[in-house]
Design a protein that fits this description.
Elements lengths: L1 H34 L2 H27 L14 H29 L9 H27 L2 H28 L5 H28 L5 H13 L6 E10 L2 E10 L5 H18 L3 E10 L8
């Protein structure tokens, strides 16, 4: 039930994020031009990239939920990681544009200080993007969604870039015109760092990196409490979209008959699926206890 509520919340927050990003993009471009704030115009480019992240969240949520087909027998869970990779690449590209704009501003002193309306729009941006970040982080953490977490951090980075605009506008009012582009460059570095980390995680997930560090202790504990199981080995887990799959060997008494061994395997599978919400598929192999090997 909680998972269903989170999925509904994920769709809502994506639409809210898109509406906020569209509004902020228009405001930043218009007020940036009329107020003479180049930093705010650059910040508008970042807000425009958040529109793409919101679209990616909605598209991946819809695509990943499709039923398995004869062509895609394992489902569409990895669509989330593809979307996350696309979003992070797009945001990094936008950050490169911000670098060019900031350096250009740094090399050419502005003739006049930006109007204070730029400060107001930047303050609105800080409040709204921080709100979206907190909502998306909550949903992304609960659903273990890579693309939602990527979108969340993209909004947090937008918050930081708006803070840089505030610093720059205030600095220009105190005859420190270079403070604006310098702060912008620092923020761009943060944007690139955050999104590179997200991109690396998306690539790892596409390559089926192990999720044992998240789930192995819980799985081993649950399996160890099931009657008839003498041990577990070769536990392998991987994340597929918002869920994860597990494969393992369970060891039973060598004198157990085939029917009893298969019943134990079924109990292990059903118990894991029942107790671990994120677990979608379990493959359990049976081995006699005499072949027990260290857990790989």
């Amino acid at each position: 039930m909680e998972s269903k509520r989170c999925e509904v919340c994920a769709r809502r927050v994506a639409w809210i994020a898109m509406a906020v990003s569209v509004t902020l993009t228009i405001l930043k471009f218009v007020i940036g031009y009329t107020s003479g704030s180049k930093a705010l115009i650059a910040d508008g480019l970042h807000s425009a990239s958040n529109i793409v992240t919101a679209i990616a969240v909605l598209a991946s949520q819809s695509f990943a939920k499709q039923k398995k087909s004869s062509r895609f027998v394992y489902g569409y869970g990895k669509a989330e990681f593809l979307a996350a990779g696309f979003v992070t690449t797009f945001v990094i590209s936008g950050a490169v544009i911000l670098i060019v704009v900031a350096i250009g501003h740094l090399l050419h002193d502005p003739s006049t200080a930006p109007h204070l309306t730029a400060l107001l729009v930047a303050a609105i941006s800080v409040g709204s993007t921080e709100m979206i970040f907190r909502l998306m982080r909550c949903v992304g953490t609960r659903l273990r969604s890579q693309v939602i977490m990527t979108a969340a951090w993209a909004n947090r980075a937008d918050c930081f870039s708006s803070i840089a605009v505030i610093v720059g506008v205030i600095g220009s009012r105190f005859d420190i015109p270079h403070l604006d582009p310098i702060a912008a460059l620092a923020v761009v570095a943060i944007i690139i760092k955050v999104n590179l980390s997200m991109l690396i995680e998306a690539v790892k997930s596409l390559m089926d990196v192990s999720a044992n560090h998240l789930y192995s202790d819980e799985i081993e504990y649950i399996v160890s409490t099931i009657q008839g199981v003498q041990g577990i080995s070769e536990l392998k887990t991987r994340q597929v979209g918002q869920h994860f799959w597990a494969e393992m060997n369970i060891h039973v008494e060598p004198l157990s008959n085939v029917r009893k061994a298969h019943l134990i395997r079924q109990v292990v599978r059903d118990t894991l699926l029942k107790k671990i919400r994120d677990l979608e598929m379990v493959t359990v192999n049976i081995k006699p206890v005499c072949t027990l090997e260290p857990n790989g």
